[in-house]
Write a structure and sequence with these properties.
Helix content: over 70%
Shape: globular
Strand content: under 5%
Largest sheet: none
Order of helices and strands: HHHHHHH
Number of domains: 2
Length: 163
């Protein structure tokens, strides 16, 4: 009889529920799946007891999803600032156009793989260099450059199609 890693049985059994929890918070099934996978990696770095697996997995997933949601709000705030909506003398037409552009950008980013979106966020919102992002994502800077180009191309195409 093969032995299983502590928590693996619970992770497999509760995986769909964990994805549903993350999806309720993020409103994005692809991100929810990635966060549940991340919860397994985080579980593996600690020495938890098997009987504590269910509540710990739920808490890890909920925390990861809330963190993702906070970062998303920061991204949107950043994009609002970049479009000039932060000033008080903005007319209503510019606000409507900027909101349409922002929705279009968010839709474009949601169509991309989570890893590409994460690299784009780290570059454009957090201001990290390609080398720093590559280190965090365990890849090479040239791949990060490709991710950023892919994200910018997707955004550009989406904005061109929309307007």
């Amino acid at each position: 009889m093969a032995t299983t890693t502590p928590g693996l049985r619970t992770f497999i059994t509760d995986r769909d529920r964990l994805i549903a929890l993350a999806c309720r918070i993020t409103d994005n099934p692809a991100i929810a799946e990635e966060l549940v996978q991340e919860s397994w990696l985080r579980w593996q770095t600690k020495s938890y007891h098997e009987q504590d697996a269910r509540p710990i997995f739920r808490q890890i997933v909920a925390n990861l999803a809330r963190d993702w949601h906070r970062r998303r709000k920061t991204e949107i705030s950043y994009l609002v600032e970049q479009t000039g909506l932060a000033g008080s003398e903005v007319d209503s037409e510019r606000i409507v156009i900027a909101h349409q552009e922002l929705r279009c950008i968010v839709k474009a980013l949601n169509r991309l793989p989570p890893r590409v979106v994460r690299a784009f966020r780290m570059s454009r919102v957090e201001g990290l260099s390609y080398a720093q992002i590559a280190q965090r994502l365990d890849t090479v800077p040239s791949r990060i450059h490709g991710y950023i180009v892919k994200a910018l191309t997707q955004i550009s195409l989406a904005l061109t199609d929309e307007f």
